[in-house]
Amino acid sequence: MAAVTESQPPIATPDPGADERPSKSMTIGAVCKALRQEFPDISISKIRYLEDQKLLEPRRTPGGYRLYAAVDVARLRTILRMQRDEFLPLRVIRQELAAGRVDADEPPIPAAAASEPRPRRRPSMSVTGGGALYTLEDVVEDTRAEPRLVAELEDYGVIKGEVRAGTKYYDETEREIVRAVTELARYGVGGRNLRAFRTSADREAALLQQILAPALRSRNTERRKEAVEALENLAAVTTHLKHLLLIRDLRKIVSP
C-alpha cells in the first residue's frame, strides 16, 4: 500500500540554476493543507491522480520529491474549481487549461461593491462522505426553507436524515438539496415534482455502480482509491452531459 504522505525533502544546496526556479515551493502535503479550507475533500491521492492524468506537472527533486511552485498551486486551484463549480470532466478541463485558463486568487472586494450581493459558491461535495451534520433548525436557518418543505422532501424520499440520540440530523449534501429545492419552490416547483430528478439520479448511480463495481469491491486499497476518483470524475461527466442536453432542449423552447 502506497504511503499517503510525503516526508519533507532534504534541503538542497544552492546551484547555478537556482535563480531560475520559483522562490518558494511547497510539498504535496503542504499544498493539500493550504487548499483544504476551500476544498475540504482534497487529498494527496487526488492530487496524484490529477498528476497521473497529465493535468499537473510539479518539479521533482533529485530524490523524487514533488515540489509545487505558485503557478502549480494556481493551476490546481483552477482544476478543482472547474470540477466543483462547473462540473467539468477532466477532458474539458484539460482543454480549458490548454487555452490558458488559470484562476487567480480572489482579490479583495472593492469598498463600492462590498454591499452588493455576491453569487454563493457551491460547497465541494464528495462521494466518500456527507460532511457535517445539521439539525432541522440549522437547515431551516441556513437555507431559509420552510420546515414543511423539508418534511415534504422526506415524504417523497428526496432526503432522509439520520436520527441520533432522539434528534434528527441532515448531512451537508441534504442541506444543499434543501437549499436548491427552496430556490425551485420560488418558481412553484414542489416536492412531488422532484420525483423525476430522484428517479434519474437513482438510475445514473446504478449505471456508474455497474461500471465500477469490481474495482470498488477490490481488496487492493490503491485500486479502490482509484475507483473512487474515477467515480467522482464520471459523476462530473454525467452531470455535464445532462446540462448540455438540457440546454439543447431549452433552446428549442426559446427559438422562434
From TrEMBL:
The keyword DNA-binding applies. Keywords: DNA-binding. Residues 41-99 form the HTH merR-type domain. GO terms for molecular function: DNA binding; DNA-binding transcription factor activity. Residues 1-10 have a biased composition (Polar residues). It comes from the Bacteria. Residues 1-24, 104-128 are annotated as: Disordered. This is MerR family transcriptional regulator. The lineage of its organism: Bacteria, Bacillati, Actinomycetota, Thermoleophilia, Solirubrobacterales.
